[in-house]
Design brief:
This protein has 2 domains: 6-126, Uncharacterised protein PF11572, DUF3234 (Trna Endonuclease, Chain: A, domain 1, 3-Layer(aba) Sandwich); 136-236, 2-Layer Sandwich (GMP Synthetase, Chain A, domain 3). It is 33% helix and 23% strand. The chain contains 8 helices and 11 strands. The strands form 2 sheets. Strands 1, 2, 3, 4, 5 and 6 form a 6-stranded mixed β-sheet that branches. Strands 7, 8, 9, 10 and 11 form a 5-stranded mixed β-sheet that branches. It starts with 5 loop residues before the first helix and ends in a 26-residue tail after the last strand. The relative contact order is 0.16. Pfam families: SseB. Residues 12-106 form the SseB protein N-terminal domain. Residues 237-262 are annotated as: Disordered. InterPro entries: SseB_N (IPR009839).
Length: 262
Amino acid sequence: MSDLTQLDHAHAAMHADLNDDAARMRFYERLADRELFLLLATEPQGEDIEPELFELETDKYVLVFDREERLAEFVGQTAPYAALPGRVIAGMLAGQGIGLGVNLGVAPSSILIPAEAMDWLAQTLSGTPDEVEAQITEILPPSAPETLLTALAEKLGSAGGLADYACLAGVRHADGRHGHLLGFIAPADGAERALAGAVNEALTFSGLDAGELDVGFFTPADEIAQKLTTQGLRFDLPAPKTPEHLAPVAPGSNPEKPPILK
């Protein structure tokens, strides 16, 4: 059906085989990356919001929908809401003992996610890669699994404007270790942390049991950048979108200033 969302497809893939860890991880990645519409109890007050709480036996949930029309269909009347990235909502709920109801009763992806799972998601998203100094002696063609390549392509597709492009190549280190290096060419000023975090998430949510992937940042004139471009697999990052007009920022939409959960 053409009206199915990415979250619907990820949910269907997860339930097609509940033992498929990769499909389950992909669903959580989709949930974290999507803008979700959080049902509120009252109109936002500045950057403070009060989500509507629903109790089911001894558990509490807040409700989100991946389309405004789905929220309206569930409520059946005008209701206040906040549009927030799923990762921000996960951070709000972490440690609160509150689960997440997604698209309840209005979409194929209808699901109740318990508080423990939301705590896990928030912790997973808060992880940061380690910083190390590596001595690379040889650049090789990549041999990464298709699962990781797909995860990187999807994650970098949402990193428009953070770098010109990226190249994935195999590497041999001075100590004999083999691994992979994802080099970002001409990164934007201050974008290194965001890019490294995106790659870390791609590796985590790819469903691989283990993997070693280094991340580096280079100028087009660097010798290693030229070798990566020759030997590696290139990922073109989309150009940043130019806004057509300025508009007020929705309350709580700034990830650096998440809404207060009352």
